[in-house]
Design a protein that fits this description.
Distance between the termini: 41 Å
Number of helices: 3
Strand content: 35-45%
Shape: globular
Radius of gyration: 21 Å
Order of helices and strands: EEEEHEEHEH
Strand order of the largest sheet: 5-6-4-7
Helix content: 10-25%
């Protein structure tokens, strides 16, 4: 689990400094002229959000995956970025291809299901599916993502404008 800490330094001259940094072990030393207030917190909260990255070979495949994830209530938003060029090593050879990058916003509790659903629809043998925890963001946006996820919609036949 990723831990971070916030330190508020109250100096004898009345000034204060705030620091936020990740840490593995906390060692706080206090000098006479300095007052420390230390708060430890984790990046995981009850409303944790994750962003998943996934590349697809075409806009058609990207749209099928995005639509399925949204209809199944597994994410709140999928951004499709066209014109992405990927370079990678596959079967010992340097490859490059045009792809569509999906940026999927979901609740952390849905990540396993999102990965499973993408895997079931994706044509690649080993698709790029990377989950990144969101440490901070606009609270209203994060709350919206959390409220939408895990609520399947009744719009299975709807299309997007």
């Amino acid at each position: 689990m990723l831990w971070s800490f916030t330190v508020r330094l109250g100096l004898a001259n009345g000034t204060a400094h705030h620091y936020l940094a990740p840490f593995h072990d906390c060692d706080v030393r206090v000098r006479k002229s300095t007052l420390f207030f230390v708060t430890m917190h984790t990046a995981s909260t009850p409303t944790s959000i994750s962003v998943l990255l996934c590349t697809t070979p075409s806009t058609d495949v990207a749209e099928v995956i995005a639509h399925a994830l949204l209809i199944d209530g597994l994410c709140a938003c999928v951004t499709m970025v066209t014109g992405v060029r990927s370079m990678y090593v596959w079967d010992g050879k340097l490859e490059q291809t045009s792809e569509v990058q999906l940026i999927i916003k979901t609740a952390e509790r849905c990540v396993t299901q999102v990965i499973s659903r993408i895997t079931s629809l994706h044509p690649y043998d080993v698709p790029e599916i990377i989950a990144i925890p969101v440490v901070d963001g606009l609270p209203a946006y994060l709350d919206w993502i959390n409220s939408v996820c895990s609520r399947p919609t009744d719009r299975a036949n709807d299309s997007f404008a």
